[in-house]
Specification:
alpha+beta; 4 strands; two-stranded antiparallel sheet; Alpha-Beta Plaits; binds iron/sulfur cluster
């Protein structure tokens, strides 16, 4: 089963850490003041795991599709 990268927007506090660490996979939605995933399958971005570990509220995760 494939895994997809998701951000729980309810929990995201808009710190932008994930975007700074891994702009290939995340972008910042200025209107919502929340981060969003722009590369759901993760591609080959090595920085994703670092972004997941750095998120202060641990709201970035892999989910089974
Ligand atoms: S690191 Fe976490 S809390 Fe910060 S913007 Fe990204 S998803 Fe939101």
């Amino acid at each position: 089963m494939a895994k997809i990268l998701v951000i729980d927007k309810e929990e995201c506090v808009g710190c932008e850490s994930c975007v700074q660490i891994c702009e290939e996979a995340f972008s910042f939605n200025e209107e919502e003041q929340k981060a969003e995933v722009i590369l759901p399958d993760g591609g080959t971005a090595d920085c994703i795991e670092e972004a997941i570990e750095t998120c202060p509220v641990e709201c970035i995760r892999w989910e089974e599709e």
